[in-house]
Amino acid sequence: MSEELIQIQTAFRFSEENQREFDELIGHYPVKEAAMLPTLHLAQKQAGYVSPAVMTYVAELLEVPLMKVKDVVTFYPMFFEEPVGEYVIRVCHTLPCALRDCKVVLEHLKARLSTDVASETDLGKGTTADEKFTLMKVECLASCDVAPVIMVNDDLYKNLTPEKVDKILDNL
Amino acid sequence: MAFIKLNELEVEVEDGTNVVEAARQHGIEVPHYCYHPGLSSPANCRMCLVEPHVFFPPAGAIVPDRQLATGCTTVLRTAPPDRKLDGKYDFIVYTDSPRVKKAREDILEFLLVHHPLDCPVCDQAGECDLQDFSYRHGHDKSRYLEVKNVPPKKDLGPDVLLYSTRCIVCTRCIRFCQEVSGSSELGLIHRGSHDEIDIPRAHDGMPLQLLDNKLAGNVVDICPVGALISKDFLFKSRPWFMKKESSVCAGCSVGCNITVEYKEDGVYRLKPRFHGEINQHWMCDDGRLGYHYVNSDDRLQLPMTRVEEELRPTHWADALTQVTEKLSEADAAEVVVIGSAQGTNEDNYVLQQFAHEVLKTEQLGLFGALPGEEHVFPQFTIEADKNPNTAGARQMLSNGAPVLEGEALWQKVSEASIVYLVNGAPGRPLESVEKAALESVDFLIVQDVLPSEVTALADVVLPGTTFVEKDGTFTNSKGWVQRVRKTVDAPGEARLDWEIVQQIAKQLGGEMGYHFAGEIAIAIAENVPGYADATHQNIGDSGVKLA
Predict the structure, then answer these.
(1) Which residues of A, range 65-124, sit inside 8 Å of B by Cβ?
(2) Do B189 and A52 touch (CB under 8 A)?
(3) Does the pLDDT of residue A1 top 70, yes or no?
(4) Which of A58, B279, B369, B536 could lock B386 by a disulfide, CB 3.0 to 4.6 Å apart?
């Protein structure tokens, strides 16, 4: 008895624009494998998450074994292996943020979005029904002086209170 | 050579040896998990910590180094004359100091944090490094009271299961797949204490690639714990119930050194045995799993003769009488004797002696398994010749004259009236030329181990023995003569191949009086060029290379 291999239904390719960006960034590295992280970020930006098709494409592109890509993707929490919402909200819950009541912020977000917090192996748990938001806890965002902080996609928001969170969400 | 102070011993080791190996050479155990002599050393398990001593100028004395060092990456070399310690030592290292012992205990406690203590149901129990080293070097209790990680059990491929809970993440299997098989199917997923060995999978756990290269079985051998498990051997036997015998794999012409593990009712598994110039630490899965035919219920157990177009079992006396009657009537020019590349040198030598001295025929051929495919890995090659002893059988059978093979053989067979064919290749199919030639023979005597297309054409079938049921030698493709040893008994009334031939020779008035395979090997050493050193006594466990 052995498991069946799954067939990848739709292949992934870089868009023309991303291909140009990849061609540019690959030149910065002495070996192709070293470009793994930026390539994965680029691919995730295009595909929304790192699907098996994306992993296979990146492995071929960088001439590394598929397992190496899987290894990196599961190591870093900023790579998603399943679809996430349009806006990924990362709430810092490391010590300084915790002391400055990040819990209040998180509870407010949970109530406002009526969703749970994603876990590393189950992002769906933190994704809203309309697939607009994914709520997750993260380790330190390196802004302890302005705690508590959250990150919405690539933007950092500081000194949060439930009111400020509401304003941020209203503007999205 | 480097002159080392190893604990209280003063020893000499070759330059470039690491501390683990140096200690092993002198009977001192340095426990280790991630280090394997056939792989690179990442020094990630920290189990082999030792205490080097260094010269400390302010005090002007030799003192323990500030930090313990991993024995697997501490390489011993000859020091320049002005850097000798105590005026004579190239290195001073302690493997049993209190600091080392404490470190080992603590490391083991960490390694056991997430390890389930399921030894009673674990296949590895009895040959487990974690069990052995815990017993010899570990604490008697753990201080870890929290919940243990319970990662899932996984199916990695056709022959390998992963019990992730038992894994201590030494990464030997990952490095094996990168360095030896070059296929890199295995890697680590997640981080830190959640690390798991895995194959590439989609997020839902469906595999994207399986661990199914032809060397995959080796990861089970090198796994120091019960995490990687062979499906073939799972729950079959406790290691301590099996007897072990050094032998050689009969799967191809590489001649990997193996250990046959067996009980009275059959062979349970084959494991590779180290040979520096042939197979290193490894063997392929074709050989590893290819032994099942020796335990098969279909094995030929009784001699058979053709009665009214059908092969019927009979007793030895009857079968041998029929054979000898036919052979004594025949003209030597019409007899072809065909030896087997699956048989030992001893089998083939006796057959050759029988053909020349008793039958007086010069028509000797060579038969064996059909060639397969060659597989080349970065550090291992599986050869295309699926016979263990093609080179040896050819040398044994030739006795000066060239041995008939291929077309020339089948040409001769089609002209012959009596053919004595030794096969031994399990379930050997026949190609059309071979089949036509054998069909045209008046009286076909086949000595074989399993029913096959060859035995189907026979007039007399004599049940022979496989490589695990006899003593003897194989000569591999590179000229290494190596020993196979008897483990289990042959099934039913099957006999040693050379004994059958000798019996027929005796009944035909020949003078042959070998009592055991070692005697034949001595005759081979005296008579076959190049084999002068190849007596069983000389060959031992590591083989003799032909001059």
Answers:
(1) 65-71, 74-75, 81-82, 120
(2) no
(3) no
(4) B369
In a shared domain, residues B196 and B76:
no
Q: What's the pLDDT score for residue A11? A: 87
Contact B187 A6 (CB under 8 A): no
The pTM of the whole model exceeds 0.80: yes
Structure confidence by residue, pLDDT tens digits, B382-434: 999 999 999 999 999 997 788 999 999 999 999 999 999 999 999 899 999 99
Of residues B191, B187, B171, B156, the one with CA closest to residue B72: B171
Residues from chain A that touch B151, judged by Cβ atoms under 8 A, are: none
ipTM reported for the complex, 2 dp:
0.89
Tell whether the model's pLDDT for residue A5 goes beyond 50: yes
Q: Are residues A70 and A97 in the same domain?
A: no
For B198, the enclosing helix (H) or strand (E) is strand B196-198
pLDDT at residue A3 above 70? no
Whole-angstrom Cα distance, residue A66 to residue A56? 6
Q: Comparing C-alpha atoms, which of B306, B344, B341 is closest to residue B326?
A: B306
Last residue of a domain, one of B46, B76, B105: B105
Q: List the Cα angle B51/B56/B60 in 5-degree steps.
A: 130
Kindly state whether residue A81 falls inside one of the protein's structural domains. no
- Tell me which H or E stretch contains B474: strand B472-475
Q: How do strand B335-340 and strand B364-367 relate by DSSP bridges?
A: parallel
Cβ(B451)–Cβ(B426) under 8 Å? no
CA distance A59 to chain B (A): 11
Tell me the residue range of the domain where A55 lies. Answer: 16-75
Question: What stretch of H or E contains A20?
Answer: helix A16-26
Q: Least CB-CB distance to A70: which of B158, B189, B206? A: B189
Closest CA to B200 of A143, A53, A142: A53
Chain B CB contacts of A81 below 8 Å? 203
3-state class (DSSP) for residue B419:
strand
What are B338-396's pLDDT values in tens digits? 999 999 999 999 999 999 999 999 999 999 999 999 999 999 999 999 999 999 999 99
Number of domains in chain B: 3
Provide the CATH number for the domain around residue A20.
1.10.10
pLDDT value, residue B353: 95
- Domain contains B509: yes
Asked if B350 and B437 sit in the same domain, the reply is yes
Q: B142 and B30, same structural domain?
A: no
Bridge partners of A133? A87
Q: What share of chain B is helix, strand, coil (3-state, %, to 5)?
A: 30, 25, 50
Structural domain including B14 reads: 2-105
Q: How far apart are CA B451 and CA B32, in angstroms?
A: 48
Q: Is residue A135 part of a domain?
A: yes
**Mean local confidence (pLDDT), B200-216:** 93
Report how far residue B69's alpha carbon sits from residue B67's, in angstroms, rounded to the nearest whole number.
6
Q: What percent of chain B has pLDDT over 70?
A: 100
DSSP secondary structure of B260-310: EEEETTEEEEEEE--BTTTTBT---HHHHHGGGGGG-TTS--S-EEEETTE
- Flag whether pLDDT at B182 surpasses 60: yes
CATH code at B100?
3.10.20.740
Decide if B189 and A74 are in contact by the 8 Å CB cutoff. Answer: yes
- A69 lies in the same domain as A24: yes
Interface contact flag, A66 B210, Cβ < 8 Å:
no
Interchain contact, A65 vs B184, CB within 8 Å: yes
pLDDT, tens only, B432-483: 999 999 999 999 999 999 999 999 999 999 999 999 999 999 999 999 999 9
3-state secondary structure at position B337: strand
Residue B278 lies in a domain: no
